[in-house]
Amino acid sequence: MSAFAAVRPDGPLYRLAREPDPWAWPAWSHAGPDGTFGNRWDDPDGSYRVLYASSQRLGAFVETLAQSQDSSAVLHATNSEQIETDDPDLLEALRILGLKLL
User: 3-state SS string over the chain?
Assistant: First the structure.
């Protein structure tokens, strides 16, 4: 018996993931040497996996970019205009993270 109750969201959920099944659990073969997948809400003991989703599109973008917040590669790409988008949600996520497109 599970200690958690199953609940359904009130509306759509947004998730950034890979095809063919965006809701598939990440394969354990992709875990790092520490047993995690390099994300901030991963189980530090590496005994369970986490799927990230948000009730808002912006939340899905921000969570995906959060692990790169201090990445010089992301900052370099942003400063070099290598990210091309007019997606308002992605632009807002970049603004929240303190990045901006030139």
Answer: CCCCCCCCCCCCCECCCCCCCCCCCCCHHHCCCCCCCCCCCCCCCCCCCCCCCECCHHHHHHHHHHCCCCCHHHHHHHHCCCCCCCCHHHHHHHHHCCCCCC
Domain extent listing, the chain: 28-96
Nearest CA among 74, 90, 72 for reference residue 82: 74
Q: At residue 77, what is the residue type?
A: A
Of 20, 17, 19, the residue nearest 52 (C-alpha) = 17
pTM of the model: 0.56
Q: What is the pLDDT of residue 24?
A: 92
